[in-house]
Specification:
heterodimer, A: mainly beta, OB fold (Dihydrolipoamide Acetyltransferase, E2P), five-stranded antiparallel beta sheet, two-stranded antiparallel ribbon, 6% helix, 34% strand, globular, B: nine-stranded mixed beta sheet, 14 helices, 18% strand, binds zinc ion
């Protein structure tokens, strides 16, 4: 089981708070500052309250696997042969409706990944970068 | 929409198709366009309207190369299959409004270019910042995750997925110019290595260089042209309320395309329904895309496509022929466009050993991420 290494491009500051929180082993997602609706992926302008702004709020670190795929051939630009296989998952966090995080499941220790599997946040360091990975809850 | 002028596809053309072709994209498109115009029994001077999608050479350059005299209508439709199939809707509107008489729809692609078919996703900031750093990149992974979800909700075996490329290959072997001609069995499929569960390489469409084009004319004009008209009985467009950025991760129901919306509109316009369909050409970027769109087109119920395709039912001799040229998996990946070409030939009844018996109503499903177009083609009268 490998982990792919590919740095976020961060051409704009829109997604920077996400990675800042991860670097501190934390997990924060953007919500509308007026009504509190979760807005994911973060939009350039707020559909619900155009005069509001994105407020990055801490979220529960547990959730459920919505779907997954175990990647044998990584398609990222560059050579990533030594970084496979890894299991991508879309995780729905507890009490954060309408949001799915793209993640990698780690510490499976032979447990086959499953839809509906309970997982918890378990960030992993790859080189100098911390990845927002999840592991089985039990 | 009762004031629409009835229209038909009067000409179709294709360039050569291949993995890496020498001629520039523009030349491939011009070649396909010339063939389509000639097939319609028209000359370049008769073409006064153009419709295509983003990412192809603009109409002014193509018109100049073809020798088109007066261009009175130019439009850009949606992306990928939603654009190339949905462009017929723009053509019908233009003809109905008296803006054009003969509209050329054209498309070409070179996936052999650096970055290939994935490159446009890499340009998306959300993908670059939230997906690529986790290795979640490339259409095969997005659709594999969809297939996994479908498997969870409805059940889906490897063998059922394998029915799709096996049927496509059998059709492609009866279609001159197909990129893939060697036989393919279900056992071959099962031995093909997995790239992203549950997908094998054979669950994915081809990489292609090539171009295709078609001409839309009024039905009245079509009746005076050499080929039997392929009547555009209905063409519908639909879009989901999620962005293309979010389509493969945040779509509330991840295994829902906009095909249920576009097909409803196309059937309504045609006054026909799924029960009338004799064959279907379905945007087959991946195996799961075929299954989901079969359901959205009403060819079977929701969650039923996986078992529906068992036993070669969508292959030659099956009771619901799908992608009768081999589709994007074995004929060529000319998004949606070679599907339109094939449907027209089936309606004309000129497909030789691959001809569907009594093909009077065909449906074409064009996926374009969060958008979708459906066209219903029929024989005249
Ligand atoms: Zn709000």
């Amino acid at each position: 089981m490998g982990l792919p290494f590919f740095e976020p491009r961060l051409d704009t500051d829109l997604m920077r708070p996400y990675w800042d929180a991860i670097r501190n082993n934390d997990l924060k997602l953007p919500a509308c500052s007026v009504c509190g609706a979760w807005l994911w992926y973060p939009p350039e302008s707020l559909p619900c309250h155009p005069n509001g702004h994105l407020e990055w709020r801490p979220v529960p670190k547990t959730g459920t696997v919505y779907t997954f795929t175990t990647v044998e051939r990584c398609l990222l630009p560059g050579d990533h042969k030594d970084e496979t296989p890894y299991t991508n998952a879309l995780v729905e966090l507890d009490d954060v409706p309408g949001v799915r995080l793209v993640t990698i499941l780690v510490n499976l220790n032979g447990t086959p990944p499953k839809i509906g599997m309970r997982v918890r946040y378990a960030p992993t360091k790859v080189n100098d970068q911390t990845l927002p990975t999840f592991e089985p809850e039990t | 929409m009762n004031s629409l002028t009835p229209v038909a596809i009067t000409g179709v053309g294709e360039s050569e198709y291949g993995r890496v072709l020498e001629p520039p994209l523009f030349d491939l498109i011009a070649n396909a366009a010339r063939k389509a115009i000639e097939d319609a029994g028209l000359s370049a001077a008769d073409i006064d309207g153009f419709a295509s999608t983003p990412g192809v050479p603009p109409a002014d350059e193509l018109a100049a190369a073809l020798g088109v005299k007066e261009r009175r209508f130019t439009a850009q439709a949606s992306v990928a299959g939603a654009g190339t199939v949905g462009a017929a809707q723009l053509a019908q509107l233009a003809i109905s409004a008296g803006l054009a008489k003969h509209v050329l729809v054209y498309y070409g692609i070179k996936t052999s270019r650096p970055g290939g078919a994935y490159a446009f996703h890499a340009a998306d900031p959300h993908k670059a910042d939230l997906e690529m750093p986790l290795g979640f990149y490339g259409q095969p992974l997005y659709f594999a995750a969809l297939a996994q979800r479908y498997r969870h909700e409805y059940g889906l075996t490897d063998e059922q997925l394998g029915e799709v490329p096996v049927a496509a290959r059998a059709w492609a072997r009866m279609t001159p110019g197909s990129q893939k001609q060697d036989p393919l069995t279900l056992d071959d499929y099962l031995e093909n290595p997995v790239i992203a569960t549950p997908f094998r390489k054979l669950d994915c469409c081809l990489n292609s260089d090539g171009a295709a084009a078609y001409v839309v004319s009024s039905l009245e004009a079509a009746r005076d042209l050499p080929n039997p008209p392929a009547v555009v009985a209905g063409v519908g467009f639909g879009a989901l309320p999620v962005t293309l950025s979010e389509m493969f991760t945040q779509n509330p129901d991840l295994i829902q395309f906009a095909g249920h919306l576009s097909s409803k509109r196309a059937y309504e316009q045609a006054g026909l329904g799924p029960k009338d369909v004799d064959f279907a050409e379905i945007y087959d970027c991946f195996t799961i895309s075929v299954l989901l769109q079969m359901e959205e087109l009403g060819l079977c119920g929701r969650g039923e496509a996986a078992s529906f395709v068992e036993g070669g039912r969508i292959g030659p001799g099956g009771d619901m022929p799908v992608n009768t040229h081999g589709g994007h998996m074995s004929n060529a990946y000319i998004p949606g466009t070679n599907h339109v070409v094939e449907a027209v030939r089936q309606i004309r009844g000129v497909r030789g050993e691959a001809q569907v018996k009594d093909a009077e109503v065909g449906v074409i499903a064009g996926l374009g991420g969060n958008e979708h177009a459906t066209m219903v083609l029929t024989v005249d009268g």
